[in-house]
Here is the input.
Amino acid sequence: MGKTYDLIILGGGPAGYFAAERAAEGGLSVCVFEERNLGGVCLNEGCIPTKSLLYSAKIFDNTRHGADYGVTAENVSLDHEKVLARKAKTVKSLVAGVAGALKRLKVDVIAERAQITGKTDGKFTVEAAGQTSTGDRLLIAAGSEAVLPPIPGLKEGFGSGFVLTSREALDIPAVPKELAVIGGGVIGLELANYFALAGSKVTVVEMLPEVGGSIDADVARILRGNLEKIGLTFLLSAKAKEIGDGFLIVASPDGTETKINADKILLSIGRRASTDGLGLEKIGVLTERGAVVTDPYLRTNVPGVWAAGDINGKSMLAHTAYREAMAAVNDILGKPDPVRYDAIPQVIYTMPEAAGVGETEKSAAEKGIAYEVHQLPLLYSGRYLAETGGGDGICKLLIEKGTRRLLGAHLIGNYASEIILSPAILVGSAWPADTLKKIVFPHPTVGEILRDVLLEVK
Here is the structure.
């Protein structure tokens, strides 16, 4: 029989390890079960490694165009092997940091996938590697996994190494000459961007009429245009129909088919909650469309059980997972702390970056919200012009009619990932536009474009 804890956490990704730190600081005895590496998808095969690759590509691309800024360099090249080594070093350092923090806080970490086996004498029982542990409370944070669609030839492609998910793509030893990407969402676009700059001929196949998922339509269009300029080809409203040996068959809405030759295929069409094999049914945890159902406090339908991160399917973003973890632990500690999901920013770290928060024109219209749009080119920002020399970046704000509050903000251009924090705060504050106009932005910054657009609101 294993130990008994105040809190058992299933999963050591952003939600799991962050919750463990907060709970241990709150005086609880905690155990985390994680079958892979601490840090989850985000730290090991998502957020951090992709940013490492993209930063190398950004330096490479900037150096290639250095002459535009009076900087001349010859024989500029990107060494993919060294890029991977730097990525691995970064990930290793951060994973070690997480492990060190948990160790200092006396959190037990068990490198196994755990399964819930039931509830005995008021305590939840969890089994891993033949040993049972018990806990007064459970936090389910098992994350998500790549969606695998029923495409003929997909299984065989995985078996031969021809088809990759982001996990394998981030460790591919050589840059493929031709790369087909199935899925034009965040991860698909970020990896497509890197490999295109690294030398691949990249074709992106997307089922929807535009790339970028739920981002603003104008931002998505501008982003696609910029990626096309560096050589990416997009097949929109198209569906992967068949995978063969060295090729992909794509079907268009009109029934025509296109054969794409490729050295590798990257499958990136989304993720689903990893609920299989957790034993949720043993204690009656409710799921819906494969995800654990939670309320704003991250409580499940079973008293004493919470679920945070991708596992609940609400917002599959690492920063959402951190917030949910904090809210769940606060609730466990008797400090109710509901999560708001209306002001969570999303970012695509391509070149240029795209970011948004709050309502888009599409979502506002679907909800029947009356709004007006105010938009300016980023060229209104002196710093943006000084650092890009041009570009087609924009800042778009949606203002609710009547209340005059900021409903949403959407940007594309350098520093968009950093700028979006300010409008996220402003969307959450619900202050009227006239109040927001009084905020003093530092000059010169790209972020002061927010003030310029706000001044357009009459």
